[in-house]
Amino acid sequence: MSKKIRNFINLVLLNYGILSVVIGSVFFFAYNWNSLNKWHKFFIANMLLISTFIFSIIGNIKSVKNRILTCGFSVLVGVYIALIGQVYHSGADTYQLFLIWGLLILPIVLSQNITPLWLLEITLLNITLILYYRTFFGFGFVTLNFYSGFTILAVVNSAIMTTFSLKSNSTIIPKVLNLLNNIIITVILLSSIINDEYYYTIILYILWLAGNFYLFRVRSVELFQLSMCLISILTASMIISFIKLSDNFDLIANSLILGILAISISSFGVKWLKQINKGESND
Amino acid sequence: MIKENSETPWYIKFFVGLGGWLGALFLIAFTTTLLSDYLFSDSNSFLIIGFLLSVVTILLSKKEINNNFLNQFILALFLTGEGLVFYWIFSEFFDVNFRVVLFIILIFQGASYYFINNYAAKFVTSLVAILSLCLLIGSYGLSFTLLPILFAVSIILLINKINNPISFSITILLLISPFIKLEIWMDIIDEIDGSIFFTDPVIYNILLSGILSILFAILLKRLIKISLLNSLLIAIAAGFINYFIPGITIAITVMFIGFFLSNKFLTGLGIISSIFYVSCYYYDLEVSLISKSVILIISGFISLLSRWILLKKGVIND
Q: Which chain B residues are within 8 Å of A238, Cβ to Cβ?
């Protein structure tokens, strides 16, 4: 049995075991939650937090077991903040929970520098921004609408993705972030065209595509990222054409045009991807 | 036609498929509207056009065409032909007997799979054929045998590195099967032809978990070459967990096979499915929170205990 498979089995059993025990324990306390007084609740939360922290620093801090425990500790920090909010009825806005959570675990994320923790931090940042926007509909004196709110989110995610693409060896974080941005930018583009408003989203979309082209074609080659861009182009083109053609209701002509369009875009896309793939293989 | 070999990354295959399927969808709309509005009002014309499209595209798929547009166009035409033939089968036989519909689709898809020379097209035809086969077997009250049989076939195909569309379509079907309850499909057919089906959920779950355990043991023995006793112990644990959290053993097995074959798509699919099945279990309102809690804690400890035993025996290293 190869070393690779041994490590894989070790990881699966360890991850599944720790996750099931932690989630099972959370369910157990949730079942009895109402019958516990606030001291019991804090005792349990403190014990969980402290024991996870102690076990995560015992032994080799870089080992798989310690890293999984560090991730567990980072999640429990959020649970602890939520408990404080629930017991003391702090009246804080919801976004503050995620903001404080993200800030508190930031030193751990920076020092450990592991992908799951970075993904947690990025998720918390996204949730904080969305909840802040939903609470105040703007930042300070600047009022934001649906389009500008999600544009800011996309810009923030793009900045983080670019940093990771240029500075880090991680390939998962740029992929996850770009997939998220792909959905956000395509949705706001389609929404602006369907509702006939805020056409600046077209420029944003083109800029995003140009950025992707530079990062994943010119600077280095990432076929996955380029494929996701092409899927976005195909989806957006089909939906926009469908809407625009629906004004002139001729089912036969519209179906033929849309069918040919889908085949054209995908065939040109595949040709391009295969050329790049071939070029890379030859290099 | 495009020869998508196993070396082509899955996202390029997905993009090829998406373009072809979208194209086919609109071409089906175009052909059916044209046929019914202007050319023929008889439903047999759908069969003739559909069959002709299938035959022509199958013949074209045998040739090496280096034009991407033509390749995609042929794929879309093939799927359009299939769609038109399905339309005819349903319109002619649906009221007569649903089993006949399933049987004809199975034969037609089997033949298409054999003749067409394209990965995306083979994937669609095998998926439809296997789905028809499942419903057909299920309609005779044998639904409890389906998942284990499919699971066994999928494992045999995948661990022998037969990286073909059949094994992928079975795997996809297996992964979604606990979500799309087989009993619901059976009930739909039940209403159509009035048959009685075997759908006792407790016996079904026990049988399924038991057979899955045996298959998982065989897989472990073959895959990681541990002793039969160790693999049986792990497999029984997996079957036990599967009884309470349906689908989890299938997801973990797909993850293992994906890792064994160095196939990131299957590994990712297995990981996402296992998270999905655990989430489904969390939202299952028929199970009380305390039962969920106890099951999760026990299964977690079983997993950690298995790891500890394997560590002690030196099978794995920390």
A: 22
| Two structure tokens written together for B283 | 């939202």
DSSP state letters, B226-282: --HHHHHHHHHHHHHHHHHSTTHHHHHHHHHHHHHTT-HHHHHHHHHHHHHHHHHHH
Q: Which residues of B touch A265 (CB under 8 A)?
A: 19
Interface test with B, best of A32, A35, A266, A278 (most B CBs within 10 A): A266
The percentage of chain A sitting over the pLDDT mark of 70, rounded to a whole number, equals 95
pTM for the full model?
A: 0.69
Question: Quick one: how far is CA B315 from the chain centroid?
Answer: 33
Q: A residues 239-268 near B, CB within 8 Å?
A: 251-252, 255-256, 258-260, 262-268
- The ipTM value here is 0.75
Identify the residue with better confidence: B39 or A201.
Answer: A201
Kindly state the average pLDDT of the residues B244-259: 76
Interface of A with B in 65-94 (CB under 8 A): 65
CA angle B265, B162, A230 (to 5 degrees): 35
d(CA B235, CA B249): 9
Asked whether residue B189 carries a pLDDT value surpassing 60, the answer given is: no
Q: Is residue B184 a contact partner of residue B143, using CB atoms and an 8 Å limit?
A: no
* DSSP code, position A145: -
Question: For residues B199 and B212, what is the distance between their CA atoms, to the nearest angstrom?
Answer: 18
Q: To which H or E segment does residue A139 belong?
A: strand A138-139
Among the listed residues A118, A121, A184, A115, the one whose alpha carbon sits nearest the alpha carbon of residue A147: A184
Is the separation of the CB atoms in A82 and A98 below 8 Å? Answer: no
- B125 with B136: CB under 8 angstroms? no
- Mean pLDDT within B164-193: 63
Nearest by CB to B30, which of A21, A259, A263? A259
Q: What values do phi and psi take at A139, rounded to 5? A: -120, 115
Q: What is the pLDDT of residues A7-27, one digit of tens each?
A: 777 887 888 888 888 778 777
Chain B contacts of A5, Cβ < 8 Å?
223-224, 259-260
Q: Which of B27, B30, B289 sits opposite A31 (nearest CB)?
A: B289
Q: Is residue B58 within 8 Å of B78, Cβ to Cβ?
A: yes
Q: Which of B24, B256, B292 sits opposite A27 (nearest CB)?
A: B292
**Residues B73, A267: C-beta atoms closer than 8 Å:** yes
